[in-house]
Amino acid sequence: MDVFRIQGGARLAGEVYVSGAKNSSLKLMAVALLAPGVTTIHAVPNIVDVTIMAELLRRLGCTVSYDATSETVVIEVPEVIEHRADYDLVRRMRASIAVLGPLVARTGAADVALPGGDAIGSRGLDMHTAGLERMGATVTNEHGYLVVHAPLEGLIGTQVFLDFPSVGATETLLMAGVTANGTTVIDNAAREPEIVDICNMLVRMGAQIEGIGSHLLTITGVSALNPVEYTTVSDRIVAGTWAVAAAITQGDITVHNANPDHLAIALEKLVTAGAIVNKTGTGFRIQMERRPTAIDIATLPYPGFPTDLQPQFIALNAIAEGSAMVTENLFEGRFRFVQELSRLGAEVRTDGHHALIRGRTGLSGAPVEATDIRAGAGLVLAGLVADGETTVHAVDHIDRGYVNFEKQLTLLGADIVRESIADLS
Ligand code: EPU
């Protein structure tokens, strides 16, 4: 396993280009299953999760090729596909659950391994299954697999009210609904830009969806969809991580291929912290000329503050002037990384889903371990401003969400190198 070795203290300045969103690309690859033929998706980031999704699609019968240079995936979907997603792949990537909806829609059945909990929380599937049941499917849990069967005549459009605007459940029901009989209404649907992206691709394929971007999605089932060529929406979480990188290092970063509207609350928070943010033709520029002021945040479904930027903002608060309260409303395990941040001298106390951070004038470099993608990003950002050397272990987590993170940081002026653990002896 690789580590990042960071010498803190550099001010980051320069330009970065953001690729397509991981959390959209992976789902768009699953969407391809809905239409036999050749689907081409651009701006698919070169991360291991894409490799895992490609392997999953191959096992379902597809031919998949990925070109890392052009970031393009080509998926050839046969008329007849398999319907089983094995534990060895689902265990490695929770997003594998994205094939659930398309499999039931295409084949009338799905055997998908239960992903289980992970480092950020328990991550249930009850809303996915309750929605499919309302559409007429039977769902059982057999030997660690979710076994789903649609009625012989196919899924039946109905009204589904989600208890919570779950991203995953909205996606499953959307993909199940596009070819169901009749009209499916998803009330309290998630509104994330990645959901909009999936809707836009589905519409391009011939689906009929109203209310895109709202909490009420009305889907009129069509008999078949056509394969298309599509480009993934840019990754707002990667763009937001660059914004915090500028703020925490008192730097000046221009972020290209980013949509500042997708980051409205996060950028507004950074302005409150003292940053200067300006939209550009291709994204935004963020400058910070003083020590940041501590800022309270509370994570919520989009358009609320994204949970995937919460660790990065805790890192910012750790060196800010004043104290801040961070409330995590989505994933109960997301404060696990606070223990690691404390190794750098951060003063953070957690109580349930609240974290109280007292900003310090400096952090002190130390070895730390990334527990998930975003925790890893937060620790790297903290390491950039810590005194001396910080070694971030388990960077394979970070690699799952950030392509060439250390190379891009180096281009911005950071002192960071990747080393394999064997080199450290
Ligand atoms: N939940 C349930 N039952 C369900 C579905 C969700 O209890 O049937 C709960 C979850 O346990 C969690 C909360 O609802 O506590 C939110 O879950 P949601 O379904 O909205 O999230 P997700 O689809 O599992 C995606 C992203 C996450 C991102 C969240 C929220 C992917 C692959 N993952 O997860 O991304 O944090 O939405 O925006 O799209 C990441 O990229 O680092 C990451 C974790």
Keywords, please?
425 residues, alpha/beta, UDP-n-acetylglucosamine1-carboxyvinyl-transferase, Chain, 2 domains, four-stranded mixed β-sheet, 26 strands, elongated, binds uridine-diphosphate-2(N-acetylglucosaminyl) butyric acid
Detailed description of the structure:
The strands form 7 sheets. This protein has a 4-stranded mixed beta sheet with strand order 23-25-1-26. Strands 2-15-17-16 form a 4-stranded mixed beta sheet, with helices on one face. The chain has helices at residues 22-31, 48-59, 87-90, 100-107, 126-134, 167-177, 193-204, 236-248, 264-272, 310-318, 337-342, 373-385, 396-399, 405-411, and strands spanning 2-7, 13-17, 37-42, 63-67, 72-77, 84-85, 109-113, 138-142, 145-149, 159-161, 183-187, 208-210, 216-220, 229-231, 252-256, 276-279, 283-287, 297-298, 323-327, 347-351, 354-358, 363-364, 367-369, 386-387, 389-393, 415-420. α10 packs parallel to α12. It is α/β, with parallel strands linked by helices. 52% of the residues are buried. The model has no long low-confidence stretch (mean pLDDT 96). The chain folds into 2 domains: 2-18 and 234-424, Enolpyruvate transferase domain (UDP-n-acetylglucosamine1-carboxyvinyl-transferase, Chain); 22-231, UDP-n-acetylglucosamine1-carboxyvinyl-transferase, Chain. Uridine-diphosphate-2(N-acetylglucosaminyl) butyric acid (EPU) is lined by residues 23, 95, 120-128, 164, 166-169, 307-308, 330-331, 373-374, 401.
